[in-house]
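Histidine triad (HIT) family protein
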Amino acid sequence: MSYDSDNIFAKILRGEIPSEKLYEDESTYVFMDIMPRADGHCLVIPKTPCRNMLDASPEQLTACLVTVQKMGHAVMQAFGAEGVTVQQFNEAAGGQEVFHLHYHVLPRHDGVKLRPPGTMADFAVLKDQADKIRAVLG
Ligand code: AMP
């Protein structure tokens, strides 16, 4: 399986479609998931191409996980969460829908289930939630 540079996250990285950006560094980019399964659900991606964990370089994996940890702390603080769930899917059979490596970071509250997938966010609400996370990140 090869990398398709027309995938939606590659287009976000090139600025061809909009995203609610939360953070970036030299190697990674973070933005809100448009179909959030929890308030504050965001996605961490490498800036360089790879489909998923299976073809990622050690450098891409390391950079992503360092940013995942940073975002885990940030979303927990922004939403007063007691925990955080990190999800990452590989190939269609593994549940992957967008074929650019990404980590889901989901703040979690005791006893609150994730929402079912597939419901588009209200963009004003998404921006408010992003503002809370950006405020924590400074
Ligand atoms: P998966 O590949 O199964 O990890 O799922 C892809 C995720 O990307 C889903 O949670 C979608 O809601 C999310 N998603 C798809 N398109 C966009 C987009 N344009 N901006 C932000 N998130 C997106």
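thats it. The chain has one domain: 8-137. The chain has three helices and five strands. bye
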